[in-house]
C-alpha cells in the first residue's frame, strides 16, 4: 500500500530525514513514533505530496508520488496535526469543496457527510463559518472531509491532539473499520499508550534515522512501548 | 523604553527575513536581493523625480514653497498609503494574543506597532523631503536654524498623517464590528474614506485659479494638506516658528493618539479580530467540476480578505470610477480644462495604455499563493494538477480585470470617435497586458511564496512578488510611451508590437510554470 524506500530530505545543509525505509501493507495500522523534531512530520508531508524530496522513492499502490502525484493523492487522505482550514467557508462548504476535488458524486457525498456529521456531532454546526469553530470542531471537520472519499490509505499527523474522548473513540473505531475493509493507516503520535494498543506495527525515528520498525509485539518484547522508546532515545 | 525597542526589534526580524538572510544557502537570499533591487530602483526614481519638481519650483521663482510642497505631498502620500495597512499592523495582527499576555503595557505595544509603521513611512517621507531640502538649501538664502528645523522636521513629518490614517482605520474597525458581514462593511467604509481623501485632493488641485502662480501653488499645497501652511512665510511670520510649531504639534498629536488608543486597545483588537459570524443555512451537496470548485474557493478567499480587496482591487475600482466619471463629462470639456487641443485623438491613442495601467495595478494573483498561508496543505495534498490550481487563481484575477475592462472599454467606445485601428487596440491591448501581468504575478508568487505571515498586509502589499510585479508592470507600460516619445514611432503601432511580445512572454512563462508537480 505504501512503500517508503531510502527516503532522505534536507532543509538547506541540514539532513532531517536520512535513508528511511518503511513498508505499510493493507490491514496495517502503522504508528510512527519519535521525539519532537525527529522527522515524523517531514516524512508524512513528503508521503502526501506536500514536500518535494531529493533521494529515495515513495510509492503508493504502485504509483510514485513524485511522478504521478494526482493518482497517488486520489487514493489517500491526510489529516494534519493542526487543522488549518479555509476560515471563510462554512464546514459544509469546506467538505463539499474537498469532495469536489476528489470528484465524489452528489448522492454518495450526501450520505457520507450526513453519516459522519451525525457520528461526530457536527451536523448542526456545518452551516456555521469555520472561523467560529473551536479547535476540536475544526479537527472533526478535517476528519469528515478526509473520510468523504473513502480513502484506501489514511495518513494522520498527531490525530488525537485536540479531540475530546468521544471523538477520539470514534476515530479509533473508524481506523479499525478502514483496515478491516482492506485499507491501511500510517500515523504519527506522541501518545505511546495509544500506539501500543492501536498499532499492529510501529516505526521509531530518531534524528531523522529509523531505529526500529516492525510488529509492535516483536519490537517492544515484554516491556512497555514507553520503556522501549525511552531506552532507544537514551542510546546515542 | 527598552520594552518598546524589544517589541520593535521582534517586528523587524519578523518583517524582514533577517535571520534567513544570515543563514548561508537560504533561498530567501536571492529573493531579498531582487526585492532590494526593486525597492532601491523605485526609491531612486522617486528621489530624482522630486529633485526635478523642486528645481521646477526654483525656475518659476517659488523656491520658498519647496518645504511646504514636500511636506504636503509626502504627508498626503503617507496618509493615503497608511489607510491601506494601518489596521493590519496596529490592530488585529496575529501576534496580538501573545503580546497581550506578556507583562507589557498596552501603550508600549501600540507605540511599538506605530513606530514600526513609522519606520516604513519615514522612508517614504525621506524620498520627498530630502531631495526637496537639498534643492531648497542650495537655492535659497537660508539661515542655519531654518535648515536644521527643516531636516529635523523630516523625522516628524509622518506622525500626523499616520495618526489621521490610524483614526480612520479605527473608525472602520469599530463601525464594521457591528455587522455580520464585517469584511464587506469594512471595504465599503475604506473606499468611502479613500473617496473622501480623493475628493479633498481634487478640490485642492482645482482651487488654484489665481493670476499669480505663487498664490495658485500655495493654495493647492495648503488645500492638499492644510498643516503645510506652517512651512510657509506669510504675514511677516518667520518660517522657523512654523516649523518649530509643526514639530511640537506632531509630538503632541502622536502622544495623544497613543494614550487614547491604548485606553481601549484590548477592546479594539477584539473588534478587529471578530470574525464574520454569518451562517449559510442553505444545505447543498451538489457536485461541481474541479476547476469551478477551485475558482469558487479562490474567489471567496479573495473577497473575504479585506486587505486583498482593498489593495489588489484598487486599480479596477479606480478604473470603474474614472470610466463612469468620463461617461458623464463631455470630451471637449475635458480637453479644454486639460489644455489639450485634439483631445479625441489623444485619448483614442492612449486609452488602451490607461486601461492597461489600471489593470496592472490590480494583481491579486501575485499574492494569491502566499495568501493560502497555513491552508496551503489543503491544495498541496489534494489530487489536483498544479496547472488547475494556478488556472483557478489566474481566472479570479482575470474576472476582476474583466469587470473594469468591460466598463471602461464600453465607455471609451461610446465617448470617443475612433478609427478601426484604435478600436482594435482598445479591445486587444488591455487584454494582452491583463494576461501578462496576471501570469507574471502568479509565476513570481509560485517561485517566491511566503506562507508564514502574521498579517495579510505583508503578502498583499509588501511581498517580493507584489513589488516586482508592480515594477515589471510599470516598465511594460512606460516602454511603448518611451518608444513613441524618443523614436517617434506611432503609438498605435508600438502598442501592437509590445502586446505581441507580451503575449509571447506570457505563453512561455505559463507553459514553464504549468509543468511543475509542486507548488
UniProtKB/TrEMBL annotation, chain A:
PROSITE patterns: ABC_TRANSPORTER_2 (PS50893). GO terms for molecular function: ATP binding; ATP hydrolysis activity. Residues 2-232 form the ABC transporter domain. Gene3D superfamilies: P-loop containing nucleotide triphosphate hydrolases. It comes from Streptococcus salivarius. This is ABC transporter. SUPFAM superfamilies: P-loop containing nucleoside triphosphate hydrolases. Keywords: ATP-binding, Nucleotide-binding, Transport. SMART domains: AAA.
From TrEMBL, chain B:
Signal peptide: none annotated. The chain crosses the membrane at residues 32-52, 72-93, 114-136, 148-172, 184-202, 239-258, 306-330, 350-373, 394-414, 426-444, 464-487, 493-513. The keyword RNA-binding does not apply. Keywords: Membrane, Transmembrane, Transmembrane helix. It comes from the Bacteria. This is Membrane protein. It comes from Streptococcus salivarius.
Amino acid at each position: 500500500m505504501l512503500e517508503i524506500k531510502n527516503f532522505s530530505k534536507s532543509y538547506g545543509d541540514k539532513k532531517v530525514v536520512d535513508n528511511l525505509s518503511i513498508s505499510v501493507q493493507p490491514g496495517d495500522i502503522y504508528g510512527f513514533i519519535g521525539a519532537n523534531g525527529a522527522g515524523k512530520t517531514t516524512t508524512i508531508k513528503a508521503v502526501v505530496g506536500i514536500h518535494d524530496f531529493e533521494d529515495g522513492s515513495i510509492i503508493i499502490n504502485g504509483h510514485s508520488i513524485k511522478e504521478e502525484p494526482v493518482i497517488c493523492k486520489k487514493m489517500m487522505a491526510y489529516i494534519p496535526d493542526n487543522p488549518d482550514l479555509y476560515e471563510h467557508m462554512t464546514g459544509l462548504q469546506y467538505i463539499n469543496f474537498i469532495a469536489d476535488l476528489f470528484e465524489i458524486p452528489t448522492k454518495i457525498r450526501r450520505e457520507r457527510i450526513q453519516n459522519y456529521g451525525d457520528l461526530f456531532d457536527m451536523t448542526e454546526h456545518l452551516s456555521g463559518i469555520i472561523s467560529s469553530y473551536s479547535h476540536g470542531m475544526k479537527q472533526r471537520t478535517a476528519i469528515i472531509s478526509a473520510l468523504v472519499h473513502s480513502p484506501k490509505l489514511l495518513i494522520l499527523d498527531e490525530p488525537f491532539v485536540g479531540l475530546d474522548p468521544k471523538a477520539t473513540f470514534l476515530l479509533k473505531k473508524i481506523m479499525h473499520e478502514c483496515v478491516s475493509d482492506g485499507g491501511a493507516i500510517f500515523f504519527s503520535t506522541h501518545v505511546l499508550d495509544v500506539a501500543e494498543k492501536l498499532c499492529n506495527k510501529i516505526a521509531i525515528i530518531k534524528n531523522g534515522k529509523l531505529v526500529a520498525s516492525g510488529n509492535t509485539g516483536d519490537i517492544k518484547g515484554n516491556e512497555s512501548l514507553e520503556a522501549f522508546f525511552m531506552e532507544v532515545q537514551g542510546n546515542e | 523604553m527598552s520594552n518598546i525597542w524589544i517589541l520593535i526589534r521582534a517586528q523587524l526580524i519578523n518583517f524582514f527575513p533577517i535571520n534567513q538572510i544570515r543563514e548561508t544557502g537560504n533561498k530567501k537570499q536571492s529573493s531579498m536581493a531582487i526585492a532590494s533591487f526593486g525597492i532601491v530602483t523605485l526609491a531612486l526614481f522617486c528621489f530624482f523625480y522630486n529633485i526635478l519638481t523642486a528645481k521646477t519650483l526654483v525656475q518659476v521663482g517659488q523656491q520658498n514653497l519647496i518645504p511646504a510642497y514636500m511636506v504636503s505631498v509626502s504627508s498626503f502620500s503617507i496618509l493615503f498609503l497608511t489607510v491601506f495597512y494601518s489596521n493590519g499592523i496596529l490592530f488585529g495582527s496575529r501576534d496580538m494574543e501573545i503580546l497581550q499576555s506578556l507583562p507589557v503595557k498596552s501603550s508600549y505595544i501600540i507605540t511599538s506597532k506605530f513606530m514600526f509603521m513609522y519606520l516604513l513611512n519615514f522612508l517614504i517621507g525621506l524620498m520627498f523631503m530630502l531631495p526637496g531640502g537639498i534643492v531648497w538649501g542650495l537655492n535659497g538664502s537660508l539661515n542655519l536654524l531654518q535648515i536644521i528645523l527643516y531636516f529635523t522636521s523630516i523625522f516628524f513629518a509622518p506622525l500626523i498623517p499616520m495618526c489621521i490614517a490610524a483614526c480612520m482605520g479605527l473608525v472602520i474597525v469599530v463601525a464594521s464590528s457591528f455587522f455580520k458581514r464585517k469584511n464587506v462593511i469594512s471595504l465599503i467604509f475604506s473606499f468611502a474614506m479613500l473617496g473622501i481623501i480623493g475628493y479633498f485632493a481634487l478640490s485642492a488641485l482645482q482651487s488654484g485659479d489665481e493670476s499669480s502662480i505663487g498664490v495658485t501653488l500655495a493654495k493647492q499645497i495648503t488645500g492638499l494638506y492644510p498643516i503645510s501652511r506652517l512651512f510657509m512665510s506669510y504675514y511677516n511670520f518667520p518660517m522657523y516658528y512654523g516649523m518649530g510649531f509643526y514639530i511640537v504639534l506632531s509630538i503632541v498629536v502622536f502622544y495623544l493618539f497613543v494614550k487614547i488608543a491604548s485606553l481601549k486597545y484590548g477592546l479594539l483588537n477584539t473588534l478587529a479580530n471578530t470574525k464574520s459570524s454569518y451562517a449559510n443555512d442553505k444545505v447543498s451537496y451538489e457536485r461541481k467540476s474541479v476547476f469551478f470548485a477551485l475558482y469558487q474557493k479562490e474567489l471567496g478567499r479573495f473577497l473575504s480578505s479585506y486587505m486583498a480587496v482593498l489593495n489588489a482591487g484598487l486599480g479596477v475600482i479606480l478604473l470603474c470610477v474614472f470610466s463612469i466619471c468620463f461617461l458623464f463629462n463631455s470630451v471637449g470639456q475635458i480637453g479644454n480644462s486639460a489644455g489639450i487641443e485634439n483631445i479625441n485623438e489623444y485619448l483614442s491613442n492612449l486609452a488602451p495604455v490607461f486601461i492597461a495601467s489600471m489593470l496592472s495595478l490590480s494583481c491579486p494573483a501575485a499574492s494569491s499563493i502566499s495568501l493560502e498561508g497555513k491552508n496551503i496543505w489543503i491544495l498541496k495534498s489534494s489530487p489536483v494538477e498544479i496547472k488547475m490550481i494556478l488556472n483557478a487563481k489566474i481566472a479570479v484575477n482575470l474576472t476582476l480585470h474583466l469587470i473594469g475592462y468591460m466598463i471602461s472599454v464600453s465607455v471609451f467606445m461610446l465617448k470617443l470617435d475612433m478609427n478601426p485601428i484604435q478600436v482594435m487596440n482598445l479591445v486587444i491591448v488591455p487584454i494582452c497586458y491583463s494576461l501578462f501581468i496576471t501570469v507574471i504575478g502568479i509565476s513570481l508568487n509560485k517561485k517566491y511564496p511566503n506562507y508564514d505571515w502574521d498579517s495579510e498586509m505583508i503578502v498583499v502589499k509588501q511581498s517580493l512578488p507584489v513589488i516586482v510585479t508592480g515594477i515589471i508592470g510599470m516598465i511594460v507600460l512606460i516602454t511603448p510611451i518611451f518608444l513613441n516619445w524618443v523614436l517617434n514611432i506611432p503609438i498605435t503601432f508600438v502598442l501592437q508590437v509590445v502586446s505581441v511580445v507580451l503575449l509571447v512572454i506570457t505563453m512561455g512563462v505559463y507553459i514553464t510554470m504549468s509543468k511543475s508537480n509542486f507548488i
